[in-house]
Write a structure and sequence with these properties.
two-stranded antiparallel ribbon, elongated, Helix Hairpins, single chain, alpha+beta
Length: about 140
């Protein structure tokens, strides 16, 4: 087997590759943020369901409608919830079933966050290397 040859590139090619790596890194950051938000929401709902399980029926609670708006409500039941299957389709489930589904979502989100973090590390190493190459080639062009 022959020894691999070093890659030859000019300044413009290095800059173009650097821009591509940065764009890929930014796309990964956006994906990471989506998974972090999903994970945060999942953890909040798990905590809320654990609290609801401990409450008695006909208990008055405050329900967040979002954007800092709350509403008083009375719990009719504290052992069942509705889970969205997609669109406007809702499926009744026990709180333990819902918690199991949320645990699965949590694990999936944590695994994706770990994968994305690893990809980000690789892209950052490439960005650092390409930055050095581009600076070196830029310096050679100026001489």
């Amino acid at each position: 087997m022959s020894e691999p040859r070093p890659i030859q590139m000019n300044f413009q090619q290095a800059i173009q590759m650097l821009q591509q790596e940065r764009a890929s890194f930014e796309a990964l950051q956006e994906r990471m943020e989506k998974y972090r938000l999903n994970l945060e929401e999942t953890l909040i709902v798990q905590e809320a369901l654990n609290t609801v399980q401990k409450l008695k029926e006909d208990k008055s609670v405050k329900i967040s409608l979002g954007a800092g708006v709350y509403m008083d409500a009375n719990l009719v039941t504290t052992d069942k919830v509705l889970i969205t299957l997609g669109g406007a389709i809702l499926k009744p489930a026990s709180i333990p079933e819902a918690l199991k589904g949320l645990e699965n979502r949590q694990k999936e989100a944590e695994m994706e966050i770990a994968k994305i973090s690893e990809e980000q590390r690789k892209h950052m190493a490439n960005i650092n290397s390409l930055t050095q190459v581009a600076r070196s080639l830029g310096d050679k062009n100026r001489q």
